[in-house]
Amino acid sequence: MGEAAEEVIRAYKFLLRPTSRQEQALTEMLRDHCALYNAALQERRDAYRHVSKTRVRYGDQSAQLKHIRAEVIEQARWSFSSQQATLRRLDKAFQAFLRRVKAGQAPGYPRFRGVGRFDTVEFPKDGDGCRWDSSPEGPQTRVRLQGVGHVRVHQHRAVKGLVKTVSVKREGRRWYVVVVCDQVPAEPLPVTGSIVGIDVGVVHFYTDSSGHHEPNPRPGNAAEAALMEAHRYLSTFPRRSRSKRRRAAARKVAKLHRKVQRQRLDFHHKAALALVRGHDVIAHESLNIAGMTKVPKPKADESGGFLPNGAAAKGGLNKSILDAAWSQFLSILANKAERAGRQVVPVNAANTSRTCPECGHCSKDNRLTQADFRCASCGYAANADYVGALNILNRAGLALCDVA
Q: Has residue 2 got a pLDDT over 70?
């Protein structure tokens, strides 16, 4: 087992409690940064189309900020560094676009942002346009933002390490501050001597190598009826309508989706924490979730129609996989393990549920149903998810031996 890192990078997210005037100022800050983002995007588009395919880069646009702030009074109110971060954000979008073009993938040209879809402003350095006034003893912490003032923060835990960046984020009608800290001391947990393999699924969220099945809460499925009704009501209004009732209906849909997101995130944190506290090494499958949730390609027949391709059944499976959000869970698990001095081992996912853990025989005939496994060679029978977890554990043991 590798040694735990002494220091890690960690992000803290806290709820802001702005006054009505501060909330108005925060809204105006997002609006002006959105306008800057869109203007910079328009400049890049125009330069490429009309000036012999000229490419405008971040350095060119950053150099114009001084003149923009002198001419546009609204832009002069805000932090120069935060505006540079917004321009850098656009530059990253273009870099990603060019990288996808070179790789032959669907490029996805950067798009203009509506005011309601630009929700984050980043301050790349504490003390430059913002100041994190930490108070570990109580919840009366405040963050000072240029053009907004000292905003109250509901600090529910102490911030450790060196504050590097501060971001302000809007989620619906709530405001949050995200503080990213470097040099956060790791907090190793006591050694347990336990190694476990987990097999994630949709019937059970995961099954471990000791036979425990973690129930899948399915937050999206539980809220499906309410979401369908809210979406149905929203669809009764024209898309270009700006009426109060349509805005209220859209807010309700967004509120339900955020509730599902918070429920899923809360479950992932608790499940990951339980695994990290109970085991020194946690092994899981290395999954290509994007490939697993692809829509099946249509199959054309000779008459110009289409043959059945299982898209309906695959759509239901994709929905369940995305509701479980394995990628988010495994990312949270890796972060918690790093801070606690634990080790997470991803292993090859091929045939983990088709291989007999007793004799090693691998065949699709071993998997009778979704839940049942019976080896066609030696007759070993068990739950298929449990068999997968055992095989993951065995492969992790071999991987650790190779490293040692």
A: no
